[in-house]
Amino acid sequence: MVPTMVLVADDANDSHRARSLHDLADAVAGRGEAPVVPAFGSRKEVQRELDAVTGPKVVVPAYVAGGCVDSAGLYASLDLGADAEGGVCATAPLGAVPSLVADLAGRLARRGWEPGDGVVLAADGGESAEERQAVAEVARMLSRRLSAPVQVGYLTAWAPTVADAVERLRSADTGRVAVAVWRLVADADSDRLRALDAVVTPPLWPSENVVDTLLAQHRAATARLAV
User: Fold this and answer.
1) Quick check: 210 pLDDT over 90?
2) Which domain, by its residues, includes 36?
3) Using CA atoms, how far apart are residues 29 and 202, in angstroms rounded to an integer?
4) CA–CA separation, 211 vs 149, rounded Å?
5) One Pfam family for this entry, by name (predicted)?
6) If you average pLDDT over every residue of the chain, what do you get?
7) Which of 65, 61, 66, 48 is nearest to 10 (CA)?
8) Are both 150 and 211 inside the same structural domain?
9) Rounded distance, CA 168 to CA 133, Å?
10) Residue 76 and residue 142 in one domain
């Protein structure tokens, strides 16, 4: 029996994120590899969807590490039902995956980034050291791929802010500044980023690479459940 993939994220009070998340869930389900249950909303709504799934299940965060404070808090608070019939396996949010970083570099290039332009990696922040480490690793990998320095700026938690990081680069006379958005899906903050005087990439989704990566997580978790 193929475990159900339960995609989890907070979309409370954010219609942008809700639309993007449901489009992503439809794309993953469209591959036909596994049944997919979208569990998006408030903690109560997500827990209800999770509890309704019978049989083995793989719980997959629909956000990147350090990319959505609200979703990370929700995910940490869930009762995953470790004693569920058939077993349950919870995966970590996507982090410094080489293919995702390569996609991010490609998005910068398509938006007109050129060597010599400043680069800011825009993340949300978060509560845990693991999230901070993941964002720092993404910045390092992106810097190596671009052969250029990458500053990190945050939208919600930690410092500096994205706006401060952009202004710091502009003050250093680096020329144009590009913002690489470390977000899985579009949300209300996308408008704030577009208001910056900088080149801004879209979130990682839509991209078939995101679907591939989420399904790879599901396959690895399915193998663990089978042991």
Assistant:
1) yes
2) 4-94+206-226
3) 23
4) 29
5) CbiX
6) 92
7) 61
8) no
9) 22
10) no
CATH at 210: 3.40.50.1400
User: Is-contact 75 82, C-beta < 8 A?
Assistant: no
pLDDT in tens, 103-126: 999 999 999 999 999 999 999 988
Structure tokens at 98: 């080489």
What pLDDT digit, counting tens, does each position of 44-96 carry?
Answer: 999 999 999 999 999 999 999 999 999 999 999 999 876 667 799 999 999 99
C-beta of residue 225 within 8 angstroms of C-beta of residue 58 = yes
Q: Nearest CA to 35 among 55, 17, 63, 51? A: 55
**Structure tokens belonging to residue 83:** 């004693």
Give the CA diameter of the chain. Answer: 60
| Local structure of residue 126 (DSSP, 8 states) | -
- Residues 181, 214 within the same domain: no
Letter for the amino acid at 123?
A
